[in-house]
Amino acid sequence: MMRPAKERRPRAPAGFTLIEVMIALAILAVGLLAIARMQMTAIQGNADARDVTRATKWARDKIEDLMIREYDDAVLTDMDGDGGAGLDDTGEGADQSEARGGYTLFWNVSEDDPVANAKTVRVVVAWQGRDRSRLVRLTCIKPEL
């Protein structure tokens, strides 16, 4: 007996079509672009944090320098006599200033503030950030001992 020949069925093609590959590549490209943007934002955030950290360190160093001086030291004098109203002054209105590598430190003194025989000292560090001017302020009170 002879067997009838089996009819061959055409097989489904294996693999992906060109349109499927193109869609997958488009999705991959969008994902990679999103990751690249996220990296750029993280780098900018880290640079801003570095700047704030540096400014805060310099403000802290200046506060420490001012606090170890004698109460009647010339740098602890309210040069323009504006008292507490001038503690946030920068530029020409500040009592004293110095520049440090792209940053400018200003310090202002208010005498007999908040009480008699005490000075309020505020250090303001200013610099030009990536997109705007930035400030860090630190304040302390120096008593007359």
Task: Give me some keywords for this one.
4-stranded antiparallel beta sheet, 145 residues, alpha+beta
Note down, in words, how this protein is organized.
This protein is α+β, with helices and mostly antiparallel strands and 145 residues long. It has one domain. Helices cover 34% and strands 25% of the residues. It has a four-stranded antiparallel β-sheet, covered by helices on one side. The protein is rod-shaped, with a radius of gyration of 33 Å. The mean pLDDT is 91.
Number of self-contained structural domains:
1
- Category from helices, strands and their pairing: alpha+beta
The low-confidence parts are: none
As a percent range, the share of strand residues is: 15-25%
Series of secondary-structure elements, N-terminal to C-terminal:
HEEEE
Q: How many DSSP E strands?
A: 4
Mass-distribution shape: rod-shaped
Report on the biggest sheet.
4 strands, antiparallel
Cα-atom radius of gyration: 33 Å
What's the helix and strand layout?
Blueprint: H1 18-67, E1 96-100, E2 103-111, E3 118-128, E4 133-143
Antiparallel strand pairs: 1-2, 2-3, 3-4
